[in-house]
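input
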Amino acid sequence: MPLLNPSLKERLEALLAELPSDKLALLVDFAEYLKDREEWEATWELLSDPKMRKDVMEGRRQAEQGKGKPWREVQKRVSRQIDTKGRKGISSP
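output
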């Protein structure tokens, strides 16, 4: 999530300081709604792609059958690949 620029942050802080607690509660609920909606929109976009949806369903079936690899193992492998690719083409001084 991008950081607020200083003027927006200052404006928000000033407004928050003046709001009563019942309005703050409404604001928190709305902020949570916006965050959740953004996450759901990203999920919906991915699952709207037929190939992606098929891949997700296949992954779920494999997981239910005990197939596949633990997430941490995949994460380490991908991190190593990124590190290796990042170093290619970089010459030492």
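quick obs: The longest helix spans residues 21-47.
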